[in-house]
Structure formats: structure tokens, C-alpha cells
Amino acid sequence: MAKKGKFANAPKSEKKEKKKKGAKKDDQAAQKAKLAEEAALSARLGRPTPEMYPDIVCTYGTNEKKVQANSKQILVDNLTVSYHGYELVQNSQLVLSYGNRYGLVGLNGSGKSTLLRAIASGMVPRPSSIDVYTVERGMDKTDKTALEAVLEVDQEKHELEEEAEHLTEQMGDETLTDEEQTALSERLSDVYERLDELGADTAEAKAASILNGLGFTKEMQEKKTKDFSGGWLMRTALAKALHLNPTFLILDEPTNHLDIGADYL
What we know:
Layout: H1 12-44, E1 56-59, E2 73-83, E3 86-97, H2 112-120, E4 132-136, H3 146-151, H4 155-171, H5 178-198, H6 203-213, H7 218-221, H8 230-244, E5 248-252
Parallel strand pairs: 4-5
Antiparallel strand pairs: 1-2, 2-3
Helix pairs in contact: 4-5, 6-8
């Protein structure tokens, strides 16, 4: 006689309910995994998001709608930053102006990294014209080479290259109307124009030159980052920042793992 399953005698409605709960758990697990993957990608690209730091809370008096989009200054009034309910910054004014270099000094555990994360992740309002890149204590070890790691940082270039490939495939569709073909052709032209502005054709040479300036030989540039020591990982992270050349660069302990002779980097 076949054994009855655990829910063999359960009412049909109960079985359906349990199936729904199981499906819901699977969906939640998949969503959680997706968010974790997106967070890891954002961190790897030096662009953290608020979702990565749920324990950090920021409040401020600045009206985000009144922030000038083309401004190159971050100006926030009545800023309060708390971590796990503990206030690190209280009702302060934050002013960061383009072209200046700022140093954040404080005791270990005083909240320096937390404040930097709040700024980098966009919890602190900033003009849309300001792109931010952060180097936070090195980078993860992966199967990517040093050169690949530097090149992947330019997210816009990668997205445009993928769009160009997709547009080219679409233009091969013989069922498209003349108007549709024209629209695709015009968009493809715009994409290539933007890629030219970004220097896509010279990106690899530029990345290799930056790595060389940081002490990487050609052989080391082709070496997987998982095989690097902490010091070389930090240099790779710095190379990514130099390659991107953002409006606002945040460095959290950038000389970690570097020897005294390399601190000038």
C-alpha cells in the first residue's frame, strides 16, 4: 500500500493555501537574491544604493525639488545622520564644493565611513549633474583581470554598447517600416556619437595606461584579481576611480594595504 503524503488528508483549500505560501516564500527568496546581486554589482561599480545600508537614516531640511540640477555643489541644511538609532551628525550643514579636497578625521568607530556611505548612496540630496564614485577599502576578489575590472566601471559605456548591438539586430528585421528603420538608424547614430564622446575606442588603452602608472606590468594587468594581495587590489580600485574620473570621488581609507612608498597614490 502506498504511503499517504503528509497532507494527503488535508482539505483541498488547505493544500492550496500551503502551496501559495510555498510559492510566496520562493518569490521572496528570489527577490532577495536579486536585490543582493544588484547590491553587489552597485558596490563593485562604486555606486552604492540606500538599500545597501538599511541601518543608516538621514534627515535634512533641504527641499530636494529646489536643488539646482546643474550645480556642482552639495549643500544640505539641518542634516542628521544616525546609525542603529545613534546620531552621528546632528542638525548640521554639509557643504561640498567642486574642485576642493576634503579630509574626514575622527576616532575609530566615530562614524566616518557611515557618513561617507550616506553621501555616496544618495541618502544625502545632491544635484543630478554630480556623478559619485566611491572606493571603499579596496575591492572584492573575482575572476576578472585587473584590466577587465577597470573597464567594467564605465557602466554607461557598457549599456550603450549593448544598446548598439541590440539596435543593429533590430535593423535587420525586414518587416520594419521605413519610419521604424529611420528611427532605429537615428538612435544608433546618437548612441555611436555618445560612445565617441566617452572615448570607447580608446578606453582599453587608457585603462592599461592608468594601471601601468600604478605599477602594473602587462602580465599583471591580465592577472585575475582573485590572485592579488590587498595592496594590489587597492591599486586596482584606485585605477577604476582614475579611469572613470567622476565629478565627486569618495575615498574611504584609500592607503589601506599600501606600503609607505605607495601612499602618494
